[in-house]
Here is the input.
Amino acid sequence: RSVSSVTIPPPACMLLPLEVPNRYLFGPGPSNVPPRVLAAGGRPIIGHLHHEMYEIMNDIKKGIQYAFQTNNHMTLAMSGSGHAAMECAVFNVVEPGESVLVSVNGVWGERVAEIAERMGSQHYSDKVTVCRLQALAKHKPVLFFLTHGESSAGLAHPIDGIGDLCRKYDCLLLVDSVASLGAAPLLMDQQKIDILYTGSQKALNAPPGTAPISFNDRACHKMFNRKTKPVSYLFDMTHLSNYWGNDGKPARDYHHTGPVSGFLALRESLAILAEKGLENSWRHHKEVAEYLWKGLEDLGLKLFIKDKDLRLPSVTTITIPDGYEWKELLAYMIKHHQLEMTGGLGPSIGMVIRVGLMGYNCSTSNADKALAALSDALKHCPKRKA
Ligand code: PMP
Here is the structure.
């Protein structure tokens, strides 16, 4: 018997057609992708180093500059999800042994602290906003991380003033806007954010898998004057800046094969945001969120973030109603309404149900659908506890 003969047969599932349900994705992401963006992602593949692709990447850069409100030249999209942008930011600006200060308001701060720890940096967590000034002075971090839209808690963290504080202590400000970009006001340059990233699959409504990121001159100075190479080859900004035509060199060399379809879809989702206008998009998310919050309260539900001004308009957290098993409520809505909401994440697991109405999904008619599904689930799911 030859060693090259096939011993593993084709799997039976592969001989069946692909099945994908049509669902309302009203959780914290991914959100539903509008037909125009899906169609863009379905256009023919071209080479990642063809000149037409460079033009599309240039458009994406401009689209991100608008969405982030930045003039930063060092703006691009990561080949990877939001985590790729998180790691890219930390890997490139921090060297082993340097310290990073992380504001932990939910799971994302915890993740960044872990990324910093894995690459051998000292990290300090700071849960309390009032401690921040002392913590900056005490630990002399090179980077301070804050999540703008903390999707695990449903919190929109204020940003104003923090950039000035970081400059005073010669520290870079890194902000995560994966869950908030396009939904809540954020102005990278004016708010003195040194590094900002987001994801494709939330209010931008592109498929998951690409992540816009931008570095200002302070961040570029730090990352391009380091003594050691970043731990990741794939996320090394010396290479990525060349791939995105940002390093001033005449040619772009092969570094990795970018997700061509993902970039086409991202370009289209950024175009939709540019057509709609950021201010309109922010206003629209706020209005629909307020409509949803009122509807939830009318159902007798409690919102997890009490202060309206601190609530994230894109992802609302509902305190799990007394007596109910949250998993049963979610399963009921998927089964009977084809509608996804999710439970908590990290520290908020077992505390909240999360509803996200983002971008294309953000409408009062979708809020009504979410409210009807929840109300139905509350009627039909048993109360397990007194
Ligand atoms: N940051 C925030 C605030 C998020 O909500 C998410 C995704 N839920 C991420 C980062 C990570 O993004 P991804 O799942 O695309 O890696």
The chain has a mean pLDDT of 94. Residues 28-29, 81-83, 108, 147, 149, 151, 176, 178-179, 199, 208 surround 4'-deoxy-4'-aminopyridoxal-5'-phosphate (CB under 6 Å).
